Amino acid sequence: MPLEFPVNAGRRNVRAARRKRSEKEPYVGRGPRTTSPRMDFLVLFLFYLAAVLVGGATICVCSRTSYLRGLVRGGTQVFSYIIPECLQRAMLSLVHYLFHTRNYIFVVLHLTLQGMVYTEYTCEVFGYCRDLGFSLCYLLLPYLLLTVNLAFFTLSSVTDPGTVTKANELLLLQVYEFDEVMFPKDARCPTCDLRKPARSKHCSVCDRCVHRFDHHCVWVNNCIGAWNARYFLIYLLTLTASAAAVALVSTTLLVRVVVLSGLHLETRIDDLGHAQVIDIFLLVQDLFLTFPRIVFLLGFVVMLSFLLGGFLCFALYLAATNQTTNEWYRGDRAWYQRCSQVAGAPSAEPQVYRNIHSHGLWSNLGEIFLPAAAAAAHYEKKRT
C-alpha cells in the first residue's frame, strides 16, 4: 500500500520525539502526559512575525513625516557618543558600499536564500509529498514559478530603466506634463548637465538620470524606471507567488501527516489532572521535533509571503494610480511647500498633492506594461 511507509514512519518519528522528552516530562497512565504552560517556539515565532509586520507598517507610515527622520537623527547622535569613532567610520563605509554604490552583494544574497529554500523543498518536502501520493503537477508549481521569477529577475537587472541622455533628452521632455510643483519645467540636473524630464530623477547610486524613476532596488542592482517597471512588477508577483506556493505545499504535507498519524487525537493531562485533547501549540511543537527543517522552512516562507505580499499590494496600488515610489514619498510635502511659497505665509493650509498623470486604471496599467506605446501616445497628444 502506498501510504503504509509514510504513515508508519510518521508514527515512529512522533514516538521517538516523545521518548526524547519523556525524561523531562514523564507520561501519566497509558497515553496522556502532563505538561505545563510555557512560552514555546510557536508563540515566539508569532510574536516575532507580528513585530516585523508592525514595524514595517510603522516605518512605511512614518517615512512620509519628519517624525521618523527626527528619531533617526536623535538615535544617531546618541550612538555617536557610545560607539568609537573608528568603528563609526567603518560602519558608515560599509553602509555606503552596500546601499550607495552598485554591487552584487544583495543579488548574491537573494539567489542564495532562494536556492536554500528550494533545496530544502526538493530534499524534504517533495520526497515526503511523493510518498503520500500528492499530484505531481501540484508539486511542480513552485518550480514553474521559480523559472518565471528568475527570468523576470534577470530582465529587471539587465534592462535599461530609461536613462536620460543627450540623444533622447528632447524626446523624453515631451512625454509627461510638468506640474511645476514636484517637477518644474526648466529644472536641470547639475550632475548630468541635462534638462530633467517630468517624473525623472537622478539616481546617486547609478549616477544617471532615469525616466519615470521609481526607486533603486538593491535586490536587482538596478534602478526601476519606465522601461523595466513591468519586469519588476511581474518579478515581485512571481516571487510572492512562489513563496506562497512553497508555504501551501508544506502546510498541506504537515496537515496530511497529522491526520494520518492521529497526532491530533492524542490527549494530555493538564495541571488540574484532567485529560484534554492536544492543543495547537503542542501539536506544532511535536511537528517541529519530528520535521524541524520543514517547520522552519514553513515559518520562513510564511513570513516572507506576508512581507512580499504587502510590498506587492503597495506596488499594485502605485501602478493602478500611475504613481511612482518617488512621487508617492515626495508628493504631499512638495505640494505643501509649493503652496506655502505661493501664499507667502507659513500659515497656509496644507493641500493634498494632485496626481495629474492618472488617466484611469487600464490606461495606467498600459503605461506600465506598454511603455513605448504610452510614450508615443503622450507625445502625439501633446503635439496636437
Largest sheet: 2 strands, antiparallel
Average pLDDT rating: 79
How is the largest sheet built, in terms of strand order? 1-2
Provide the helix percentage. Answer: 55-70%
Instruction: Report the total helices.
Output: 13
The helix/strand series, from N terminus to C terminus, equals: HHHHHHHEEEEEEHEEHHHHH
- Oligomeric status: single chain
User: What's the count of strands?
Assistant: 8
How would you portray this structure in words?
The protein is mainly alpha-helical. Helix content is 63%, strand content 6%. The chain has 13 helices and eight strands. The strands form four sheets. A two-stranded antiparallel sheet has the order 1-2. Strands 3-4 form a two-stranded antiparallel sheet. A two-stranded antiparallel ribbon has the order 5-6. β1 and β2 (194-195) form a beta hairpin. α1 (4-21) packs across α9. The chain is globular, with a radius of gyration of 27 Å. The termini are far apart.
Characterize this entry briefly.
With about 375 residues, this protein is mainly alpha-helical. It contains 13 helices and 8 strands. The protein has a two-stranded antiparallel sheet.
